[in-house]
Design goal:
It comes from Deinococcus oregonensis. The protein has about 190 residues and is mainly alpha-helical. The chain has 9 helices and 2 strands. The protein is globular, with a radius of gyration of 20 Å. About 35% of the residues are buried.
């Protein structure tokens, strides 16, 4: 049995430049580290909160207050929180507030560390964006729209976003091809 070649869709120059060219790795590193710092500081404040309302003896207290505030935003002609998300908050998140409290606090720290180190950048950015989307669905703006946009860009640019980070060494050991620079030409994907 022979394997036929899979058809490939060529990548346009602009997307190749933005998302696959290691010459832009410094720009992606700045973006990645900024988003990582935002996540790390937010999560660290929760983990080390002296009142223990996120992690500790009163874990779940802060999440419960946040979620009840989200439920209050489900009324009116144009509610801030969609009905299906309100159902999730009421029937899944609130009964498990302590679990969600730990998941949020440590999730933010882990996403922040991974992004700062450039380790599993695309995956970390995806989970960061997922948390941003959750906060947005709960009717909270703050920095969430900006961080969601930046996380989306990091997911798109994962190949070079972690190139100036641990991804450059870890991902190839896991069988993932990363871009390699060539003199005079743009970055090309290394074939495996």
């Amino acid at each position: 049995m022979t394997h036929s070649a899979r058809p490939m869709i060529p990548e346009p120059y602009l997307t190749q430049l933005l998302f696959a060219n290691p010459r832009l790795a410094p720009l992606w590193a700045i973006l990645r580290i900024y988003v990582g710092y935002e996540w790390l500081t937010a999560g660290w404040a929760k983990v080390t909160n002296p009142a223990g309302v996120w992690v500790g003896e009163k874990a779940g207290t802060a999440v419960t207050g946040f979620l009840k505030g989200a439920l209050a935003k489900t009324t009116g002609e144009h509610p801030d929180v969609p009905g299906w998300y309100a159902w999730f908050v009421q029937h899944v998140a609130l009964p498990n507030a302590t679990l969600f409290s730990y998941a949020v606090a440590y999730g933010e720290v882990l996403v922040g560390i991974a992004l700062i180190l450039g380790l599993f950048t695309g995956l970390a950015a995806f989970f960061g964006g997922f948390m941003n989307a959750s906060y947005l669905l709960a009717g909270t703006l703050s920095t969430n729209p900006l961080l969601f946009i930046l996380a989306t860009w990091l997911v798109l640019g994962w190949r070079v976003a972690g190139y100036w980070g641990l991804d450059r060494w870890v991902l190839p050991r896991l069988g993932v091809s990363l871009p390699v620079g060539r003199a005079g030409g743009g970055g090309r994907l290394k074939s495996t």
